[in-house]
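User: For my dataset I need records formatted as: sequence, then structure tokens, nothing else. Please produce one.
Assistant:
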Amino acid sequence: MNRLHHSTEFIEKADKNDAVSLADVLTRVARQATTVQHKTVDASLAAVITVEEDTRYVEQTLISIVNQTVLPGSLLVVNCAPSSYKAAQHDGAIAHKVLQMFPMSASLVTAQGKSYGEVVTHAVNQALDSGMLTSAVEYMWLLHDDSRPLDDSYVDTMNEVRRNNALATVIGAKQLSWDGEVLSNVGYFADSRHGVTSLVVDGEIDQDQYDNRQDVYAVSLAGAFVRVSDWMRVGGFNAQVGTFGQSRDFCRRVVRSGGRVIVEPRARLAHRRARLEGVRSAQGTARATNPDDLRSYKNTAFTQMIARDTYRYSDVAMVRWLYMWPISLVLAVVRGIANFMKKNRMRLYANWLCHGTTLLIWELLLLCVLH
């Protein structure tokens, strides 16, 4: 759960971009889209991209989509910014007009929720009900506004995996830093402690060392292809799971239901992970940071620990919580001392706060039972 503060001139330049209105971003992308030559369009694929108040990275993401050698048949832009409803009438009218210039069927919807999965669920259901997405769509291509394909052949590569693995429910990509140099993850495996683990070490340079992987337990949903029928079959995304735990929870339910989760290392995705790395606030607004001062980054250790523990406790029978929780308190003290010795104050506070919150929840549950 260490934050990857890999910073280069390319990343710093992107972080310093001004956050402009979504309508302005779409207008700039549309101008480039009109110069795109005729390409193959895959009607069975719909790209779904969520956009927050912080629009510093979305232009590059959208340009990467329209530059694909194989285009998705549909593009669903989901405005999930807190102010999206206020700006819906003005910016929405402009955006809808601009989207007509895109080389595929492009639509704009407004949806909000407490997590990425909840937003996508509301948006996709809205699009299906209104006819923006048709029954011809077999796979959703899920994207964050800060996750862009590094290669123009990304969709073509993922479609090849679809054809060769007809039973695949989720197909994930190799995740790299925004400049495409450092690995974030290449899939996850289930561990013996009811969690998931990645063999990738923070700061590890991509040298194709994990390119022989295919079947995994979980992948990041950013950049992933998800079969629509299986998404509906397993109940979609769990709205009760936070954004940081969404991918592992969904993939776990897919695997347990008999589905297959695959990672395709040839499909490379640059993911800024703006909220995880602390350059975006919890409300989705841009956060000014200084690469030379890590204190300027929002620390997300507590939120990550909550996501980790939520996944772990939901992976076992409730009766086992009776001994898991006391053990976790002892481990919290041990980890706290270790973080104190390493002078990692933020992880120390997050570790104790996380277990303190768990203690409060247990006390409330006991009160409910006793009364």
